[in-house]
Amino acid sequence: MNRVLTLAAYNIRILLSERTWFVLAWALFGLQIAVYGSLMSKLVSTAVPNYLFFYAVGLMVITVFDSGADVGRHFVEHAHEGELPYFLSLPVSRGGFLAAQAIYGVANTMIKVLPPLIGVLWFVGDLTIQGAVFALISMFLLGLGITGIMVSMSFIAFKSVDIYSAFLAGLSALIVRFSTVFYPLIFMPSFYSPVSVFSPLTYGADLTRWVLGFDPKFLLNPILAAGVVTGVAVGTLSLSARIVDKVIEGVKAA
């Protein structure tokens, strides 16, 4: 365990050295809330009360998704830059190597999400320690699931980075757009809503809104949402462990 934490700490130190990117991410979040979020809120506030809050949580969930994708790219970069054989030669099991990558992903997600979360809750007048903690737990589980998905798909990149990048772009468009990130499931057209139930972001976004006290009539059942988010996290990380153990041998450096 100490070796896993040491490897994770090494990755996190590199992450923290890139402080400019975090500032830019927080600034972009604030800009999107101030401009696009406020405009959308005026357009749909009659249908969804407090839509600005609804939108802000969705934007944080997109940040979680992007952070999970970063872990996948980080993993692929290790492989194609020739660093992966070095990491695999360390006295850490492959499961431990995957755990270190997951810890890195969680740290990346929490750093990017925590300041916007506190800022949004303070702005809407609902800032409590309990709400912030449970919201972070919800997004933490979602982040693990997204990390598992991205690492599971990284075997594509071992054959072609271009195909992997194109696949991630298409997957991102589908998972984000066909979800409740920006609009409640009950308002979606009948030809659209069935697809949304297959997006993990649907359950992660609604679970986070529920723990923050948003009107439940606009959300999925929280027990169902919690079960799906947890199941995705456990299932995809288990699949990732198998891929790390079986597929990554002989990866060619770029």
Number of DSSP strands?
Answer: 0
Mean pLDDT: 82
Task: Return the structural class.
Answer: mainly alpha
Assembly type:
single chain
Label the overall shape.
Answer: globular
List the uncertain runs. Answer: 250-254
Write up this protein.
The chain has helices at 2-16, 19-44, 51-80, 84-89, 94-123, 129-153, 161-177, 193-196, 200-211, 222-246. Helix content is 75%, strand content 0%. Residues 250-254 have low confidence and may be disordered. With 254 residues, the protein is mainly alpha-helical.
Overview features:
disordered C terminus; 10 helices; globular; 254 residues; mainly alpha
Write the layout of secondary structure elements.
Elements: H1 2-16, H2 19-44, H3 51-80, H4 84-89, H5 94-123, H6 129-153, H7 161-177, H8 193-196, H9 200-211, H10 222-246
Helix pairs in contact: 1-5, 2-3, 2-5, 3-5, 3-6, 3-7, 3-9, 5-6, 6-9, 6-10, 9-10
Structure, briefly:
With 254 residues, the chain is mainly α. Helices cover 75% and strands 0% of the residues.
